[in-house]
Amino acid sequence: MVIRPIPFDTQDSDAAAPVRPRESEILDSIRQTFAEKGFDGASMQELARAAGMSVGNFYRYFPSKAAMVAAIITRDLEEVGQKFTDVVAAEDPLAALREGLHMRVAEECCGVEDASLWAEITAAAQRKPEIGNVVQHMERGITSYLVEAFALIAGMSRDEAEHRFLPHAAMVVMLVKTTSIQAHGPSAQCKLLRDDLTALVQRLIDMILDEVAAARPKEPK
């Protein structure tokens, strides 16, 4: 079973285009600049310089910051989709999903580079509708992946899993998202509190997964 990204629900057809190899290289080179300077703070000139390109040539690949964020999300959703494909192919999908989500929460709390980038993108989404649209697409995509995994874990159809567990999937996305904001915002707490926060969020995710697993029909004795 292969889980594929949902298409962008947007008027901008460019946002749905696959990320080409050269574009992927550029994204790798500018992620650090975005993470350090923020969405508003990073100028197109600085981003072009980080990519080793002239501004004019840079615009040929990414005409706006929103286009860059859409490309980052498109590429990252493909990677997330592969991780969920691995989950559903695992001998114990529930254990694989639990381990993957625990690891993601720990990464968000510990401040890995990508976590700070996503914190910046999330903040920008509150101010820029065009960024908000692509971030919402990302969240819908991950929620859809979770529902697919829940259907397998609970032994039910995709439609039934969506009906019963869509709020559970949305809550998992919300927990990971708010953990990132908390860990990278101006009120980021000391390491001890971050460790406690990590453990608490992981326990909340366990509760959600246990409730999904409990819906599986009991094997006849």
Automatic annotation (TrEMBL):
<dbReference type="GO" id="GO:0000976">
    <property type="term" value="F:transcription cis-regulatory region binding"/>
</dbReference>
<feature type="domain" description="HTH tetR-type">
    <location>
        <begin position="20"/>
        <end position="80"/>
    </location>
</feature>
<dbReference type="InterPro" id="IPR001647">
    <property type="entry name" value="HTH_TetR"/>
</dbReference>
<feature type="DNA-binding region" description="H-T-H motif">
    <location>
        <begin position="43"/>
        <end position="62"/>
    </location>
</feature>
<dbReference type="Pfam" id="PF00440">
    <property type="entry name" value="TetR_N"/>
</dbReference>
<dbReference type="GO" id="GO:0003700">
    <property type="term" value="F:DNA-binding transcription factor activity"/>
</dbReference>
<protein>
    <submittedName>
        <fullName>TetR/AcrR family transcriptional regulator</fullName>
    </submittedName>
</protein>
<keyword id="KW-0238">DNA-binding</keyword>
<dbReference type="InterPro" id="IPR050109">
    <property type="entry name" value="HTH-type_TetR-like_transc_reg"/>
</dbReference>
<dbReference type="InterPro" id="IPR009057">
    <property type="entry name" value="Homeodomain-like_sf"/>
</dbReference>
<keyword id="KW-0804">Transcription</keyword>
<keyword id="KW-0805">Transcription regulation</keyword>
